[in-house]
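Justification of computing resources. Each target in the renewal requires a structure prediction run like the one illustrated here; the chain below, 214 residues long, is used simply to show the kind of job we budget for.
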Amino acid sequence: MDGPRKSWDQRLFTLLWIWVSFKTLIPWLVFFRLTLEGDSYRWGNQYFNWTFYSSGFERADFLLIYVLLAIGIFLLWQMRQYRFTVAGPALTVFLGVLAADAMFQFLRGVPIIFQGDTLGVNVDISIPFYGLQVVMFLAAIAWWMSVVGLRSAPPAPVAGLRKRLVQICLVFIPVQILLLVVGEPHGLTDQIGVIGTLLQWTLLAYAFYPGSDY
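Resulting structure tokens:
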């Protein structure tokens, strides 16, 4: 028999979990590459016409990646614990800032290019990027309004298959360090390290997803 149907706010919770996990994917990857590869790794991004970039730790701009990663993990943890009084406003403010930046870039006609030298990726994602940023901000507002005053016990601890996935991700860390520290920049070992790091975050986001039955 089918389980009870999800309410619209529970579906929004799942959607927002996926979106925040996705937005944290690149900071997760860049964090490891900056930390482990040092000056051989270059990254850059723009927010409100301010360009942030660095090769390793040569500029203080690298701190932006650490802040974005910390915010992403903080938001996901608050959502996982069903702390709606914190998750609702924090999520709305964070996605609101990203949506404002998207609209600013759109009005200036700035294209959004997703580029990765190691994997040879260069894709114009302007239209979906601008649209999704605004849509997710509106979704965050709607979800926050729906859970105002709602209280729920935290979910059960991670167990079973999900616990094993977390363990696999932790076991991968020494291999990850070896691939990114010792591997040839933009070579095969670097590519394996990048793909492994992306998969690592994806599995962690899935393993810690608490479900929307709050």
